Amino acid sequence: MHTDLSPHLHTKECNTLIDLLKQCHEDHPFRKFLGYCNSIDQQVVMCLKSERLARRQKNYEKSLEFKRKLREKAQSNMA
């Protein structure tokens, strides 16, 4: 099961892979149950994972900056 596959949530690269997967499922409605589209699905999974890890790193860096600003503000209020 994938996360939300809406185009506005993903990069151009991942959207291309998602479109390929959807097309494979449409072209092969029975074979998809037998693993015919699994190679494309695996590429989608890897792309979504790389997006998630990049988002996680960005949020971590943002939190560090926020904490730094809070410490500076707290120190300036004490002085």
Automatic annotation (TrEMBL):
Pfam families: Cmc1. Its main location: mitochondrion. This is COX assembly mitochondrial protein. InterPro entries: Cyt_c_biogenesis_Cmc1-like. GO terms for cellular component: mitochondrion. It comes from the Eukaryota. Keywords: Disulfide bond, Mitochondrion. It is found in: Mitochondrion. It comes from Ignelater luminosus (Cucubano). Transmembrane segments: none annotated. Belongs to the CMC family.
